[in-house]
Design a protein that fits this description.
The chain is an alpha/beta fold. Helix content is 20%, strand content 36%. Strands 1-2-3-4-6-5 form a six-stranded mixed sheet.
Length: 94
């Protein structure tokens, strides 16, 4: 993300850490990364960091799960790591 001119920080929402907060002049993205969120408990843990962030910015989980783009509950999105790495515009497109 830094290579394609995003400013990247670590975020915190109450007691939950957000892996990456990526921003440009116009956009901001909350990003969590997880090997897999196919397990219900893991999915709940990963998306719990986004709860209460009602500012309109995209909330994205990047995984190795065999799905390209999935809409999760509450407008959260999941993308495959390869789609994220191979398409510099993926954050804007989803």
């Amino acid at each position: 993300m830094i290579r394609i001119n995003y400013i990247v920080d670590i975020g915190k929402n109450n007691s939950h850490e957000i892996d990456f907060v990526a921003r440009t002049y116009n956009d901001l993205y909350y990003i969590h990364s997880s090997l897999s969120i196919e397990n219900i408990e893991t999915k709940a843990r990963e998306v719990s960091a986004f709860k209460g962030l009602d500012d309109g910015y995209k909330k994205i989980v990047i995984t190795m799960d065999n799905h390209s783009l999935i809409r999760l509950e509450d407008g959260y999105k999941m993308i495959h790591i390869f789609d994220f790495l191979l398409n510099e515009d993926m954050l804007k497109e989803i």
